[in-house]
Amino acid sequence: MDTTANSLQSVLILLASGVLALAVCRILKLPAMIGYVVTGLALGPHALALVSDRDDIRHLAEFGVVFLMFSIGLEFSLAACSRCPPPRSCRGCSRSASSSRARTGGR
User: Is the model's pTM score more than 0.70?
Assistant: First the structure.
């Protein structure tokens, strides 16, 4: 029961701190991600150590990555990406691939 209470306490501390960081970032007109990263760094085991159990940190970090991927997925648009030109490195790769195909006779 004690580990469950510690895990719940860690989650509540991080959620409350995240909400507070979000409010501060909105006032300062900064991206919310900056507030979340600063909060994680401040509360983690190498600063204030309010959340110090490594297993809790690992599990919460996995959830954080899942939520980050979800939020990126919500913002992602294939239509917007298709309107953007390819980066220079992609154009160079396609040129070198086509020239190597020409040298080998298309094999």
Answer: no
